[in-house]
Amino acid sequence: DAGVTQSPTHLIKTRGQQVTLRCSPISGHKSVSWYQQVLGQGPQFIFQYYEKEERGRGNFPDRFSARQFPNYSSELNVNALLLGDSALYLCASSLGSGQGNGQPQHFGDGTRLSIL
Amino acid sequence: AQSVTQLGSHVSVSEGALVLLRCNYSSSVPPYLFWYVQYPNQGLQLLLKYTTGATLVKGINGFEAEFKKSETSFHLTKPSAHMSDAAEYFCAVSALSGNTPLVFGKGTRLSVIA
Fold this sequence. Notes:
The structure holds two protein chains of two kinds.
Chain A: E1 5-7, E2 10-13, E3 19-24, E4 31-37, E5 44-50, E6 53-57, E7 64-68, E8 74-78, E9 87-94, E10 106-107, E11 111-115
Parallel strand pairs in A: 2-11
Antiparallel strand pairs in A: 1-3, 3-8, 4-5, 4-9, 5-6, 7-8, 9-10, 9-11
Chain B: E1 3-7, E2 10-14, E3 19-26, E4 32-38, E5 44-50, E6 56-58, E7 64-68, E8 73-78, E9 87-94, E10 103-104, E11 108-113
Parallel strand pairs in B: 2-11
Antiparallel strand pairs in B: 1-3, 3-8, 4-5, 4-9, 6-7, 7-8, 9-10, 9-11
């Protein structure tokens, strides 16, 4: 079975631009979460979606938004890009609705976003 | 709020030696605990998890971890390091209920010396 797939793998943008990152979860997984991993740090939670509804949001500005589609794929949008948005953006999928049910999250290989 | 502390940002061991990566968590109640590994230019791969039951958890690639409530620790070990174990390792915690997200430590980079 295919794992979590993310596109694109790499992206270069300039300050002020907007970007959309895409994620397809493992077949059968209804929950998708997004994380930002800055170089040298652990992943930081951005959003979780389940059944197209937002179930959690991390401490990120409103420039960050996301949505989940009926096929459970998801998009992460970031507006007005800043240099500090340069990071690896990871998508993870899991069974079940909540992250507090002990079901592990399965991660994609991420999208490397570079802001010039 | 939950938090995770990984002691040592970089650990270096000789091939065949014991691997010990330390993780301490802060939580009002025993949480779910996870270890993930990240190879260069890849996402995170689950090594093992602790939810309930046996406190010694065995994972993939010969790794195991022991949940010690009294010490709020979940250290990762492997009896004999292999060159292929060189990677970044992350400890993570989530609450037992609700929609709390995974909270990760800052990671420990493991180097294996031939």
